[in-house]
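Dear colleague,

Following up on Tuesday's group meeting, I ran the structure prediction for the two-component complex that the binding team flagged. I've pasted the input sequences exactly as they went in, so you can double-check that nothing got truncated or mislabelled along the way. The structure tokens for the whole assembly follow below. Feel free to forward this to whoever is handling the docking comparison.

Inputs:
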Amino acid sequence: MKSYDHKKFDVYWQEKWLNNRIYETPKFPGLKKVYVLDMFPYPSGEGLHVGHPKGYIATDIYSRFKRMNGFDVLHPMGWDAFGLPAEQFAIKNKIHPKVAVQKNIENFEQQLFNIGLDYDWSREIDTTDPKFYKWTQWIFTKLYEKGLAFESNEPINWCPSCKTGLANEDLDGNRCERCGSVVEKKPLRQWVLKITDYADRMLADLDTLNWPEGVKIAQKNWIGRSEGAEFNFELIDGPVKSVRIFTTRADTLFGATFVAVSAELAQSWINSGFKMSEEIKKYIATTLEEQKKENDYSVIPEKTGIFTGIYAINPVNQEKIPVWIANYVIGGVGTGAIMAVPAYDDRDKDFATLYKLPIKEISLDKTVEEMISKFKGEKVVRYKIQDWVFARQRYWGEPFPVVRDEKGKVYMVDESELPVLLPEVESYEPTDNGESPLAAITDWVNVKGYITDKGTFKQSDDGKIFIRETNTMPQWAGSSWYYLRFADPHNDKALIDPALEKAWLPVDVYVGGDHATRHLIYARFWHKFLYDIGVVSTIEPFSRLEFLGFILAEDGRKMSKRWGNIINPDDVVKEYGADTLRVYEMFMAPFEQTAAWSTSSIKGSDKFLDRVYNLQKKISTESTVQTELHKTIKKVTEDIESFKFNTAISAMMILVNSMEAGSFTKEDYLLLLQILAPFAPHLTEQVWCELKNDKSVHIGSWPKFDEKKIVEKEVTITLQIGGKMRGTFIVPFQSADNILLEESKKTDGYKKYVGENEPKNVIIVPNRLINIVI
RNA sequence: GCCGGAGUGGCGGAAUGGUAGACGCGCACGACUCAAAAUCGUGUAUCGCAAGGUGUGUGGGUUCAACUCCCACCUCCGGCACCA
């Protein structure tokens, strides 16, 4: 049992803060602004477990800290509420996703509120709100205008279980990231966004970001820029005049001993009428089938191939070399054809060894550049990143603001008629044929109207019939720009007012889990596009990124219904109070590190807060803790700024230990309350207001540490002899070297290990250490 | 295979190249109590009665001094993957 009733404090202050609007952000910031943002959650039906609020607690501490330091803080919260789970819930229970989502949001709000988070709820947003997705649709129309959104019929990844097309980023290997089904390649009419146009800028601007190095590297690899060249190899009696190969090693062209093409390319030759033997056809078919199948990436598949009977001419020496079909050459990568140089490429070497093809060593005396210019190569930059497959054949997403006329010509819906509302349907079931459930609603799909002078579509009852686009946008659409909306959440004339954009953006600190190669790629892409059309004034959306480590269950597994190991923050708040939950989650491990929950360890944080509360009974007029107090203020200030919450708390624990053992004044105690306030807002507010008769600790100013007080009067010097620790002694701060040496001679350690011998060398680190070398 | 990150007590973890294990949990003993819980106090890397020795994944190196820097390797976690 604690000495105070945390339930009373929690509820009292949470309501009071709400009523006094102490966390409401001004429309425009003053001199100092900071925009602190959490990756907004998907409001699932299961509610929060204790892992979810970890990041929110951190941003809460950070924004309270900044507010106390005189900043105007934008710290908002919203809901990323489109997506498959709500839809699947709807299908199962025949409840409209909107209804389920609303209920879940209310539950989430209450759970977050109970933790005492300082969000400005007047700025709450929801991606499924038509007032919000109006602007998601608007961005799409702008992308289309600039030629960055286009339709394609290329085969795309199709998840047979989710019954929708997917982007490369939605895959885990060759499985659907959501459900784990192996995806198929399926030709499907698709909306695609030209993210590749921004690849170079996204790569270059990574350097400007204060992000964890690992994320930057992951993005760099995902974008996967490679510089190389393409060369034409003429074919003798082939299906086409020449085959085009891509290489990053043009300098090895003289060592090419065969050409290898993908089964896909060979199939296209057959499709266009070229005759090949049954054996070859069979090989192509089985290879294509194999490549579709599940890959175990830990094992490199065995290489197979077949000779086509065709020969190619190496453009650098007119040598006649055979053309093979090989399973290690993959359609869709590069040109789908390579020149094989077994002497300088391990894969080519394996293949050549297997099929007894020649391996030719050469002298590499020409540079890549020389080879390109001399042998009519073409310099080519390739990216691993693919254009963003942007349409989903599902119900619960943003409708496209797109119609077609009877000839199939595409028009964007006029801006004045946005948003295109997501209609009610009877069945949310997806279909097998790649049609969205929306396609079944004929009186929505067929819409009368006309084309304006600007070339956009407007509705009119006496107009011609147009057909609406029935796909919806992917889950990542809303989250690609939502952070902009918080600065101007109720604007219905523009996505964001330019003055507010300049005032608040960019996000100064962005906190969340690992979305290195999806959300953080997509949002950067859209932000750069919005920069190009003048909506935003910064080239990057998130200046600083802090990753959070997840909280595992006590058994070391992920918290999940399936394992029955979920810990609900509501229960923890009830038993220990919001402050204890907050302090414990920040103390349990370094912020960015994954750690397991411990029901016994949390008691330590609870005890700590109780001791802080009880300290007020010990207030005296003498202080023995000045140095330590000011050291702690310094440490906590620095640690919050760098997200080292665990060591900040540890420093405060050390201070409290000293305060218990020694004596301290009321002023000392109030300073402790102030630096603890961001971590434990309820308890500190209660005691602060009682003792000081002040309005709120949270709008007061952050304590400044006194540099003079941090300086110790006496320091403990470590005595080393020959590098080994042989004792300690105490001297006044900043004692001269000769004093240190004299003092060290008085120690037992010196007498024992040095005695009358003359030291070879003496190394002195002022205020710290003396090392006598013998 | 490539690219990241990490290996420290029974556990979570702390250490600008300068007393390794701060702080917390757990455990042991003691105080309070009829008793228990809570609370408080003391102890808690390891070998040794002690003096002292050994210890931060392994093996080398640099240095007066290495968890920290360099080289080689092992293990675990994450990402990418026959990308030409």
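Chain A has 26 helices and 32 strands.

Cheers,
M.
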